[in-house]
Amino acid sequence: MPTRAGRRNPRRSPLRRAALGAGLAGALAAGLLTSAAAPATAGPTAPAAPAAAAPDIPIANVKAHLSRLQSIATGNGGNRAHGRPGYRASLDYVKAALDAVGYTTSVQQFTSGGATGYNLIADWPGGDPNQVIMAGAHLDSVGSGPGINDNGSGSAAVLETALAVARAGHQPGKHLRFAWWGAEELGMVGSRYYVNNLSSAERSRIDGYLNFDMIGSPNAGYFVYDDDPAIEKVFKDWFAAKGVPTEIETEGDGRSDHASFKNAGIPVGGLFTGASRLKTTAQARKWGGTAGRAFDPCYHSSCDTTANIDDTALDRTSDALAHAVWTLGAGTAAQPGGEFENTADVPIPDGGSAVESPVSVTGRSGNAPSALKVGVDIRHTYRGDLVIDLVAPDGSVRRLKDSDDDSGDDVVTTYTVDASGETADGTWKLRVRDVYRQDTGYLDGWKLTF
Ligand code: TRP
Ligand code: ZN
Ligand code: CA
Within this chain, do residues 418 and 319 fall inside the same structural domain, yes or no? Predict the structure, then answer.
């Protein structure tokens, strides 16, 4: 290990050294060097604030959207299918409603079966662009009917949730994005096109995709997708709080647009109230409705009209949808002031090996923020000797400071790092190494602010 004075900083004078030495002695005399046995305080010093509760989604508004979609089908040959005028009219209706309240909308075109298809993407301005929560529904019907339960129901509930975000002036920590897919009925064509056209960086920014396809079935069951456990839990908790039993969705996993996201490694979840499968006696006992009858006897038929909706089911699934968007979108901004620190002193060996000080982070959902604050307090007689790294829970290392010729003393500063690619919870470490002999010091403490 070289001495810095000999190899790197020949200009430094003995006088300056003496003064720095006195500085450390002064710090000792002033009691700034506390005992190494001082207990580490690792933990939140400010409790996480609960996320704002989602508003109740007015079922009357959701049903008004369904009436519009029904009228669009009726006026366009009885359907809202891919490549037919009823599809484009459906998209224009949803887009206009979103544009009117401040969404940034875009229409993405694709081709399928010789016809042009469209996805509608609506971004709510604000939130962390590196932490996106998406909710989506397919907007196309089959050719044989107006598609009100399949999937006017999901389309209308996602739309009304997006409008509720705007009404509330909701500004969650994460960025919210809503989507209406074209050509799902041709094999999830629109959603696959969307996902395939995202860069890998854009894909990695999506924290979760929530899918809503058939959520007002007339003989409803309450099915939660068994995919990402954290998303699944948010839905299950909502239904449990209302005393409504749920089951895992098994009527064709991968049969809707969430599959496009899941295939790209994006966490997914969603709700479903049943299609052509028959309700069992046990299911009728716990949910009501008719045993031995399909959850949706009008599935893919001309009778999938506004009469083909169970209002109670649609009311519940719409509210659960909004709850999930509020809960999963909260992100770190809804947990302000979370501080995790370690105030134990750690001597830093002169020209020696690295030392580490751990901070254990708990109770924070999702990833760390894109502007994670790392407060560092190092007492040292020559800070140019110091190399400082932040080690994330998965062991990945971010350099905060390199060694240099800076002859100033202590490092008392806050670094801001983009930690959005790291899980927040876990053991973080500050790693400090003094790379040149002569001057010495110690880590007085450090903290992470989320
Ligand atoms: N996506 C199917 C359709 O539109 C309906 C469906 C069947 C479904 N099984 C599912 C949707 C399971 C979600 C989950 O025809
Ligand atoms: Zn369908
Ligand atoms: Ca040194």
Answer: no
- Alpha carbon distance 192, 194 (integer Å): 5
DSSP-derived letter for residue 308 is S
Q: Which atom of ligand 1 is nearest to the CA of 251?
A: 9
CATH of the domain at 393: 2.60.120.260
Nearest in space to 448 (alpha carbons), one of 48, 42, 173: 42
- Please give the model's pTM, rounded to 2 decimal places: 0.69
What backbone torsions phi and psi does residue 242 show, to the nearest 5 degrees? -90, 0
Q: Which residues line ligand 1 (CB under 6 A)?
A: 150-151, 184-185, 213-214, 249, 251-252, 255-256, 272, 275
Residue whose token pair is 């939140």 = 44
Range of the domain at 159: 59-328
Task: List the structure tokens of 328.
Answer: 């999963």
**Span from the CA of 63 to the centroid of ligand 2 (angstroms):** 19
- CA neighbor of 330 nearest in space, from 280, 369, 294, 360: 369
Q: What is the CATH number of the domain that holds 274?
A: 3.40.630.10
pLDDT for the residue numbered 335: 52
Is 364 among the domain residues?
yes
Closest residue by Cα to atom 1, ligand 1, is 256
pLDDT tens digits, one per residue of 60-78: 999 999 999 999 999 999 9
> Exposed, middle or buried by CB within 10 Å (0-12, 13-18, 19+), for 394?
exposed
The pLDDT tens digits for 306-334 are 999 999 999 999 999 999 999 999 976 44
Query: Do 381 and 321 sit in the same domain of this protein?
Result: no
Question: Are 281 and 343 part of one and the same domain?
Answer: no
- For 207: left if phi > 0, alpha if psi spans -120 to 50, otherwise beta; the answer is alpha
